[in-house]
Specification:
Length: 113
Amino acid sequence: MRADAIKYQLVDEINDLDEQIIAEKPITPVLRQNYPNPFNPITNIEFSISNSAFVTLDVYNVTGQKVKRLIGQRLKAGAHQIRFEGSDLPSGVYYYRLVAGEFSQVRKMILLR
């Protein structure tokens, strides 16, 4: 193999590595829809944060009353997933709210028995 061919191969490998590193750190925070939804009694909630921050993830009923705190701690930047078990809650519509630094987002989920 010629030296210039090796050089281009190495550059391509480095570029691929750079793309992987960039993909691991989200540009903007996001709270994804839980799955499965509707659920009984377990669902997964995924979210990404772009910077290390104190994060809260709370579940509320339709009247706005907080029924569970799922997360209340400092997390590193990146993708995170938490499993929510609602076996002690009645069927109904619930909302989950993520707050990370100045970012806040709410999504709806349905517990069916």
